[in-house]
Amino acid sequence: MKKLFLLFILLFSNYFNSNSQELEYMSAREAYNGLITIDNEIPDKYDLCAAMTNSALENGTNLNFYEGTAKIWKFIFISKELSDTASYFYDVSKIDGEYKHILEIDKDGNPKRAIIALNENWLNSVDIANEIKKNVSLVNFVTDNSDSLQGFSYILASITEKYNTDVWGVSIVLKNGNSFGCIYKAVEPVQIECINPTSVEDLPTNSINIYPNPAEDYIEINISNKEPKPFA
To answer: pTM of whole model > 0.90?
Structure first.
C-alpha cells in the first residue's frame, strides 16, 4: 500500500496587500488566538477542523518553514449546529500588531457532516518546526535542493482513515515535481512517517492532493487514481 504523502497547493486570498503594509509572521496558535480576539464567539459557534499555510517561493515568502510561522494562516471551521452544513474559511494576518481576517463561507461545504473537528490541544506549528529541524533527512533534502525549491506547506487536519488521529503534515516541493513530506501527531511531538522522492517515485506527483481550498466543496484526500475521500 502506498504511504500517504501530503502535497497541497493553497491559493491565498488577494485581500491582503503586502506592498502597502508589511505582514508579520505568526505561529498557527498565535493566528488562531488572534482570530478569537477579533470574534470571541467563534469557539462557541464553530469547531476547528483544519489549519494550513504554504509558500510558493516565486510568489514570496509567506511561510518560514523552519520556524513554523507564516504571514497568513487559513482556518476552516464547521458549525456546532448540526443543521448547518456550511464550511467557514478564515484567512488571518497581522499588520502592525493588529490581527486581520477575511471570512469566506461555503454554504454546502459539509453536506453530510463528515468533517471531523480537531482536538483542542493541537500542537502549535512552532512545535512541529522544532521536530522538523531534528529530521536530518528532511533538512538534507532542503539543503541539497536549495536551487530547485518550489515551495513549502503545513497542514493540520484529522485523518482517521489513514492514521486514526489528528495530524500535522509538512511538505517540500521541488520545481521538477519531486517532494518530501512528513506526518506528525497533532497533540504530541511524535513523527508518524516521512515520504521522500524515492519512496513515491512511481506515483505521479499530481495524483495526490489534500483539500480544501475555497473553490472546492469538501475537505478531501485524493490519492492516485482512487476517488476523493473526505476526512472521516
So the answer is: no
